[in-house]
Amino acid sequence: MAGAVGDRRNGVTDASPNPLEQPLVWIDLEMTGLDPERDRIVEVAVIVTDGALERLEEGPDLVLGAAEQSLKDMDPVVVKMHELSGLTEAVRASTMTVEEAEGYVLEFVTHHVPLARSAPLAGNSVHADRAFLRRYMPALEAYVHYRNVDVSTIKELARRWYPAALEQAPRKTGGHRALADIRESIDELRYWRGAIFKPVR
C-alpha cells in the first residue's frame, strides 16, 4: 500500500530502519533570478537516490515557458548564463506551466518515496531551490522533509577544516542546466563522503 512504512519501489525505501536505504530527493531549479517574489522557475529536474548515493532514479527534466518580459528583466549575468547554456531558447519554445511541471515531478517523487515528509531535499545551496518550490510548487515542497542535505555546506566546512581535500574536489562543469547540476552534486557528495567522512573506530 502506497505510503505504508517500509514501502519499497525500485530499490529505494522511504522508511527503512537502515539509514543507507532511506531516500534523498535531489531537486535543482534554474530561475530567472534569486528573488522568489519576482523571479520565475524556468527549469526543474529531480533524481532520487538512497542514502548511500548508489541507486539512482532519474526523474523529469523539464523546461518551463516564461513571459518574454520575465526574460528581459533578468540580470545581465543571468541573461548570459542562460543564453550560453541554451536554456533561454528552450524556455521560449516551451509551453509547459509551473503547475504542470509540479504535477510531473510530484508524481515521480511520490512513486519512489511513498511516505510524505520522509526524504530530505538535497542539492547545492538547496535552500534557494526550496524557497522557489515553496512559492511556486507548494505541494512538492510540502511533500519532502523540512530538512535539507546541502552539499555546499560541506564544501564550506571543508574549505576551513580540510583545505587539502578541497583542492581535489571535483570541478563543476554542468553549465547551469538542472539535471547536469544534480548529477554533479551527487558526484560531489560522493567525493566528500570518501575524502572527509571517516568511520568511527
Overview features:
single chain, 201 residues, alpha/beta, Nucleotidyltransferase, domain 5, 5-stranded mixed β-sheet, two-stranded antiparallel ribbon, 7 strands, 44% helix, globular, disordered N terminus
Please describe what this structure looks like.
This protein is of the alpha/beta class and 201 residues long. It has one domain: Nucleotidyltransferase, domain 5, CATH 3.30.420.10. The chain has nine helices and seven strands, in the order βββββααααβααβααα. A hairpin with a 6-residue loop joins β4 and β5 (56-63). The protein is globular.
State which percent range the strand residues make up.
Answer: 15-25%
Q: What's the SSE pattern?
A: EEEEEHHHHEHHEHHH
Structural class: alpha/beta
- CATH class, named Alpha Beta
The radius of gyration over CA amounts to 17 Å
Principal-axes geometry comes out as globular
Tally of helical runs: 9
What profile does the largest beta sheet have? Answer: 5 strands, mixed
* Helix content, binned percent: 40-55%
**What's the name of the CATH homologous superfamily?**
Ribonuclease H-like superfamily/Ribonuclease H
The low-pLDDT segments are: 1-11
CATH topology: Nucleotidyltransferase, domain 5
Mean pLDDT: 92
Q: How many individual β-strands?
A: 7
Distance between the termini: 40 Å
Largest sheet: spatial strand order: 5-4-3-6-7
- The domain tally reads 1
Identify the CATH architecture. 2-Layer Sandwich
